[in-house]
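A note from the maintainers: we've had questions about how concatenated examples are separated. There is no special marker in the raw files; a new sequence line simply starts the next protein. For clarity in this README we add a label.
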Amino acid sequence: MAFDIKLMEILACPVCKGKLDYNKEAQELICKFDRLAYKIENDIPVLLEAEARRINLDEK
């Protein structure tokens, strides 16, 4: 099963409540504003700030 893109319409960053972008290759949801990447495990987004990965400024 693949991550459901339709789910993106209702998901928001738990920190700023902003839009998340889907990085299919890395299987992550990205908040560009907070520069956080939330992993997707077994098709389930892990939207916990403590579990998020910080994104460098030069990362896309």
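[label: protein 2]
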Amino acid sequence: MIKGINRRVVEITSTDNDYFEKAVLYVKSDKGDVSTARLEEEAREYMGRLAPRNYRRQIPLALKIGAAAASAAALTLLIYLLICL
């Protein structure tokens, strides 16, 4: 069986990933009239949702939560010491 060979694809060659060299996205047949710039924009947005570029964003959030908990505990201890002394 011969499948349709007249398909539009978007090839992303700069994935900023250590494991993947490039990504190929096939454009839906009903979106064939969309401009190339719009397709590239949508492809980059989609790839960004799949693998965020900056994994470091998760670490500072955990550190902020830990620092907030530690400061709350220290403040609670200080208030306790002031009341009991």
